[in-house]
Amino acid sequence: MIVESGRGLGKPDDGERVRDGRSPWPLGYLLVAAGLLTTLLGVLAVAAARTTPLPVDQVAHEWALAHRTAPAVAFALALSWTGTGLPAYALAAVAGGLAYGRRWWIGAPAAVLALLAGQGVRLALSAGLDRPRPPRADWATSAGGDSFPSGHTTTSAVVAALLCVALASRLHGRRLRLAQGVVLGWAVLVGLSRVYLGVHWLTDVIGGWLLAAALVVSAAAVLQVVTPRLPAAVRPPAPNSR
User: Fold this and answer.
1) Which of 60, 108, 123, 184 could serve as 202's disulfide partner, Cβ 3.0–4.6 Å?
2) What CATH number does domain 51-229 carry, 1.50.10.20, 1.20.144.10, 1.10.3720.10, 2.40.50.140?
3) Any idea where the domains of the chain sit in the sequence?
4) Within the chain, how many helices (H) and strands (E) appear?
C-alpha cells in the first residue's frame, strides 16, 4: 500500500504490513531485545545463585508472611492453580486455536508445543542453578523442584503472550487493549501469588518474567525469518487479518 500523505510518499503503512503478514518490528530490533533480555536474565541468575537470599528477596518474603489472611491465601491459591498444569496448557491450546481460526487443529498443538519448548529451557536453567526455595515452614502450599526461575511465573507469562497474539487476531482498538491488559494482569498476579504463598523468592518471579520475555521475543524473531518459507496451509495468520 502506497501512502500519498501522512506517512510520506512511497512508505508502507504499518497496519498494511501487519495485514500482509510482515512484522512491524524489524528483525534487528527483535534480536537486540532478545539479547538484552537474555543478558538481564543472566545477571539476575548469577545474583540468585548465592546461598543466602538477596536483600530484596528477604524483604518481600517477610512482607508476605506479615500480611497473610485466609481469604487472600485462598485467592492466591486459586490464581496459582491457573498458572500451571492442565489449566495453563488448555489456555495455550485455546490461544493457538483462536489465532489460527478455521485451522485451529494446527494452531492448538503448535501453541502447546511452544509452551513445552519454553518449559524445557526453564527446567534446564533451574537444574543448572539449583537455587533452594524459601524455608518450608513458611510455605502456604506445596511445591517441587528448584526455585529459580519460577515455573508458574514463566508458564503463565508465556501463555499470556500466546493469548495476546490470539486476541490481536480477533479484536481491535480499545477492546483489544483491555483484553490484553486483563491477560497480562493475570500473569503478573500468578507470579506474585508464588511470593505471597512463600514458595518462591521475588527474584525467582522476576527471573520467570525475564525468561518468558526472552523466549517470546526470540520466537518472534525466528518466526519472522521462517514464516515466509512455510507453506500457506501452515503459515500463522497475520494479526487483525480477518
Assistant:
1) 60
2) 1.20.144.10
3) 51-229
4) 9, 0
